[in-house]
Design goal:
The structure is a homohexamer. Chain A is of the alpha/beta class. Chain A folds into 2 domains: 3-100 and 209-245, Rossmann fold; 102-206, 3-Layer(aba) Sandwich (Rossmann fold). Chain A has 9 helices and 8 strands. Chain A has helices spanning 17-27, 51-70, 86-92, 101-112, 126-136, 159-175, 193-200, 209-225, 240-245; strands at 3-9, 32-38, 75-78, 97-99, 116-120, 142-147, 181-184, 204-206. In chain A, helix 7 links the parallel strand 7 and strand 8 (204-206). The two termini of chain A are 30 Å apart.
């Protein structure tokens, strides 16, 4: 079953586009078409550590989601662990599935273990992410957030150092906080999960691979069974007349 | 104590600006300066019933908040009961207080009663608002949401009909849902609270008056005691270099 | 990617095995091998409406799960909406993924909507199922349970009557309880979801199709990324010596 | 707008009355009249660290609240962080607003930050205070209680020592417990908040200043909008006949 | 094992003392000594429907509890379903066990069923009782409160009418609210439980019999195993010097 | 009142039967008849540290419970702190009361203190036990689980070492986790509670004595007042025809 999936890097740099694309190509299902886009390269945020950065790029993310539906993508993934504009994106699409890293990672983690630690870059990130953990229903399963004290653009700078810090955080999460499953809470923490997982014998969810697979899964049940985002209440689509009159897209 | 407060109508119409301004002038503290602005009249949403409408105007709201701080406003109120971009607004300001209708109304309601019903326009609004009720900590105190089956622009069209529906909803909230305090869950449901409150003998919180007063209160404790939004974690401000380099404002 | 999946009908009748098998064949991924087994036909429960019936067949279910691993199944699905022995099954397998209808349906429903109603056969079933809803983290998203007042073996007896009752229950769930996504809370409520979903415009999750697809998804991320049930705490496997000494399998 | 406010020191000593009065005079709104009273100097508790001490003075507190209404006070503040008899006080008043330190401090703290630590004198105080934190809805926002290991009458004995302990507790709250806003959980912990707040860069709520300002705020919305404690359920006033027949006041 | 138990009717009338005494004599364990006292007959509340009535008699209740310990009672029961001053009473006793109707009834109900309805006299009572239900940990098991629209002194006036209303309330609780166990939420609702229970086939907990038996149980484990109220934190006893200096008892 | 109670050691060894019997004889009520049985000595689990071990013996436990009712036992206690098959056991009995160690210990602990720590053998046990703590309603009162790093059969091997570890765990629970009441979370941790309790001045609940006394209590209210497990919903008994047809017992 063909699955056309768009990964949106919601930052104004294509720095990671090629890497994501090539990583996704390795792990996608054979008949999945995966594209990766980022925002227009006008001056703008190259990371979304602050919620105000998210806000400034939200309309462009939303336009990309809308465009994804116009271009017949079956799913769009908003590639930031804050899961920005998930509700709005599900409103503007009528058929295209939308998911995001925290949602996907948490659903997987809650199936694989019972006590989840999330390894983040900075303490600053925690309150917004914690809000999402509770919103999705996994507050009781949250063991801890652990901060690496690194920014988004630090993760890939010195791999050995990042690896060292991740392992230290995972060790504490396991031993002190009682975690039995780990989420790497940023899409740019890619490339680390497998070594940590194998060496420390604990499932480690990668925040970019998880939503890709969750998207394929959601597309499959959508195509097979017609199961899509409910259009009754919170994800109801706006009337076409307003969209047109207000030239939102 | 002078308090300079900006009310932001986050819609692309100035339809309600004068009314709000004149209503606020009647009830503000003597030394409060209250200004009301709305968004630029370019084609755009004249109401925010859909989260995707919110998203499209979020950057402009954020810029207005930032500008409010530059223009020495002590407080900015984001005048929509969805409380859009509260986190981002508190990040970009370093001193200016930011609040919004649902936050203000819920804190008041939870002090005045123990079981809250929120009267909304449409069922569509409920999930996003319910998320906020839980986020702010008042989930246990929520008796019900009641829908009037009216859009934002219907409330002021036929006052008698709106009043009739509000009273019917409040009656059910009191009798069936066990509510003992009511919030009118839209800033445009203005002008109704007093008659309903007196006739039905239940406190009825108006969603535009509540945040004005809450803002004055927050400004006062900010000026007197230095109590402002914590800059430690979730409301930490972004670094100036990034703001400049990315030309966000 | 080959995925070998075993569906266990945890009842002492093969009444539904062929039907399930043929339904699954229609919707499985091309390279999935799906087998359906039921328990030995000794006198014993032909449905599990009572927890004591579950208990009496639990050892045999567990042995089937263990055997599934020995026979290189990638996943085993315990086909009852009470999700019996999920913890024990995840202990005895070291590699094979185990899932079940309620877990799978709830994760899907919580992604598609925000307020879930579960349509059950009898009121008797509710407390045990409600326990699971809370255990999995979805208590806040539960709109209601609706009982059809039918036993497991009634659902397929008079399709028109079952359909009539389901539609009536879904109508109430939507209109009175505020549900925006539905789960048919028994694997034997099969064959109804699509008509209800299309006619009533609300996602309706079928409790046998959901776990099949969730199993395929879990197998895929297991094979690709090594993500399996955490062996650290609650799903830790027992020592081989004890298993042997006690001849449990 | 004139606001006549009564602060009740619910202890049988006027030791702190003058200090509170003079501190309040400095920070009150210009047209607020603030009076401070304590209980009759008969032998009795000079602090309320034990709930049984509270109980023994509760009737006198209640009589003072009732008298406050007779004397046209707009608000009464029950000056102990256990918030004693808030419900009873709201019953016996028909118009006068009643608030208390924990309620006021928590509403403010939850608006300013997202993770609250409360600095108390002794571990003994924690269970009763924790009950209130949950009752008011802020359980999810509670980072920790930190004990200074000091009694109520120790706080003002050796200011340097008290300050040292508070700073140590705040440091731990910030660094280990993830707090981003602090409440000093006793009205007699006065005089410390500002230095701690400025030096440690975290909002520090003073438990005597907070309820004064919250009372002014509540009086203002009461006078302007008629918003007072709901008389429908939990704060319903008793019938006059019973009050008279039983000579309660 | 001798168990000396004091039932305190916390009202200024001995109207119900003899009845309680004689009912308790019928059901107590053979070696239990049960005494019933009420408050001094000075003008004062003859019921505690309002929290302010409770407050006015709290010191006398506390003195009776203290006296009970002095007179070697093994347990004191504070006979009102609001469970007044449970914490204070556990502080002032060092050995004597203290319990109360709501605590006892809820622990029993939560063991016998999974969904509890509480039949109260008036809607006014609900918020304070609901607070206790949550405080004790049984919020998730609460099906509903049902009000009979009767005051405390109405229950025994017209038995047929009271019975009729109780049955109607229980019927609704069972059928509409999903209750499977009932508590009669006032000690003066005595004499009704058995007929309702047998006729309606649902356990019906009587709020005066439950705490008597719970007290016997707690005394037994106290005498046998030394298990009494923890003196570490919330129930820590005050220092004798203060009790003496302040002449509290 | 005669109370006939059966303690079921749900393991395939009678190793502890005599000890339990003799300990119970010392503390039971005079007219209580207490019998202790274990499972058939066929090869099988001699402890239930793994949920899969529980599952394999569940049918035999259930048969013993059913037999207990046939033999006119008033109560059956399933003697493992995981409280296995409580629901099923309450279904198959129509009159006999069923309880278990965690349920009994938690109800007692929540009455005696406000913050509970549970001392377990291994970290492995925690998730399943934590599920029960939340299910019973005591999640908010849980201070911590502390692991002794010992298996079930280690507790009685070297009493001094076990005692040393328990005291160390209790010390940490009190000082670091804020516990004010302790539960020894395994029936085989017998013989230690009194010394720990007296030396460390904190109530310490023994997981075998607690359910014996709770059973006597439940039997007493059952015989006196007819209060038994609700047969309406979750504990409804299965129809006799099915039990017979399927030869389950």
């Amino acid at each position: 079953m063909e699955k056309k999936v768009l990964w949106i890097n919601p930052v104004t740099t294509d720095l990671f586009d090629a890497t994501f694309k090539s990583e996704f190509e390795k792990v996608k299902q054979p008949d999945t078409i995966i594209d990766v886009v980022s925002l227009s390269p006008a001056p703008g945020p190259t990371h979304l550590e602050y919620n105000c950065y998210e806000v400034m790029v939200m309309p462009e993310i939303l336009r990309l989601v809308k465009k994804a539906e116009d271009e017949k993508y079956d799913a769009a993934i908003i590639g930031c662990f804050y899961d920005p504009i998930l509700r709005a994106a599900r409103e503007v699409t009528r058929k295209t599935i939308v998911t995001a890293p925290a949602e996907a990672s948490l659903h997987i983690a809650a199936t694989l273990g019972e006590s989840i630690s999330i390894i983040v870059g900075r303490r600053k990130w925690i309150p917004e992410m914690k809000e999402n953990v509770h919103k999705y229903g996994f507050g009781e399963k949250l063991a801890s957030f652990k901060s690496l004290d690194m920014g988004v653009h630090d993760f890939q700078r010195d791999h050995a150092e990042t690896m060292r810090r991740i392992k230290q955080a995972v060790r504490e999460a396991k031993e002190k906080d009682g975690a039995n499953v780990i989420i790497l809470g940023c899409t740019i923490e890619f490339g680390f999960y497998r070594e940590v997982q194998e060496e420390m014998e604990i499932p480690v969810i990668d925040a970019s691979l998880a939503p890709l697979k969750y998207a394929e899964f959601l597309v499959e049940i959508n195509k097979k069974f017609g199961w899509g985002h409910s259009k009754l209440d919170g994800y109801q689509s706006p009337p076409d007349e307003e969209l047109k009159a207000w030239q939102l897209f």
